[in-house]
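Researcher: Here's my situation. A collaborator sent me these components and asked whether they could plausibly form a single complex. I don't have experimental data yet, so a predicted model of the whole assembly would be a useful starting point for our discussion.
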Amino acid sequence: MTIVRATFDRRAFLAVTAAAGSLATLGLPARSAPAAVGMRPIPSSGEPIPVVGMGTWITFNVGGDAELRNQRAEVMRRFFALGGGMIDSSPMYGSSEAVIGYGLERLQGQGVGTDGLFSATKVWTRMFANGQEQMAESRRLWGVRRFDLMQIHNLVDWETHLPALKADREAGRIRYLGITTSHGRRHQEFADLMAREPLDFVQFTYNILDREAERRLLPLAADRGQAVIVNRPFRTGGLFDRFAGYPLPDFAAEIGAETWAQFLLKFVLAHPAVTCVIPATRRVDHVEENMRAMDGPLPDAYLRRRMIAYVESL
Amino acid sequence: MLPYTAEILAALAAQLNGALWPLHLGLLLLTALAVLHAWRPVSGGDRAIGILLACGWGWVAWIWFWRGMAPLDFLAPIYAGLFVLQAVLLLAFALAGRLAFRLHEAAFPMLGLGLLALAAVGLPLFGFLTGRSLSQLEVIWLAPTPSAVATLGLLFLVHQPPRILFAVPCAWALIGGALAWTLGMPAPLLGSVALLAGGGLAVLRR
């Protein structure tokens, strides 16, 4: 399994030129910019998206603190500079959407290209909240006219939202629709929806220790032509805590993994059904580390088994 | 899994402290006056302290939970409701003349004074010693746990305090303690333990 590189369409071209432009703004030589980023196509359209995106759970929920907001804007700047595209959020993530909107506005105000943005958020209604009003508020917070991807968060009230999102997609108010879950919740219901509904994207948890999705969801997504976004590739940082005192195995060098983050991301990306992984971070150096997971080869089936055996032995 | 980190709560405390300073001094002075009244009661003082205590809970509900936490955590309005409930209870008992702050007639006056000292000085100091900067300290009548501990302290200065008034502080001890444990925040955790111990004593005492 390899990542398709240098797959250029208009969006990808814009993303790469924007990245080069932002590097120039930073005073870095343009040749430092990636020639292209690791892309994979969205099965329902063929549109390529970068394989490493960015989640915002916890990390972007910084409220109104100006210093923390500016730090997150720097994370976004580096993300775009390195060819990042998908940023994923949710109204459930507190102030994350507002902080993304702040970051986008700040970067655009500084002339930093954000055309590569693939905006992904969710509808998450509780009690008497109105889905359409919530999505309008999300557009306002992000400062976007429409979302590339709107997902139903953890299947909450999906019976209401799914028909509405289908209509929104038909009318061009969103480009893609999807459903999400995390922590392995409601997999049966999730799989049932995957099997019968025309979904563009599905999002669930998958990492080197949480591999339940391999049994049903990942094969089903491949079979149904649905793009897969993988959340919690590091178990919200828990895998770093668990492996912190251990060295990478020697064979990590075979796939160019220099850090645990790259090791773990490459494991996820090597699954052929995965389209994009969305690690969350609040640090610029971690963004750089994550984005480098797009470089170099990915592990084959044999090496993936060795990776699993190694981490399970720790 | 909480949608925010201890760092964000520290930033929130810093924002509030920065915006409201030196209101802190006035709130501390009011608390000291409440203790002084319990020692040497003055006419109308009981009712005034009860009403101010109710205002304190309503204020924390608004400033900490509604203004500060609600954008960060969708459960914050529920916590705010809990604090408003306590404010209503305190107001009702104050207006009914059921709160008599009497240092010499209270069952556990030293415990009450100790809890007040813990809330006003001990918890901020412990927060400072465990990594918070001065501007990030959670203080009474702004942050929930020190406020609840201070309230418990004042209730221990009341002659035969209504037990129902210990219910919300105990409930907050469980919630706040769980949050503090999850986020790894030693000072609010210590405050929650004190709340549970004090609240348990009050409820179990015949």
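Model: Some features of this prediction you could bring to your collaborator: Chain A touches chain B through 16 residues (CB under 8 Å). Residues 48-312 of chain A form a domain with the TIM Barrel fold (CATH 3.20.20.100).
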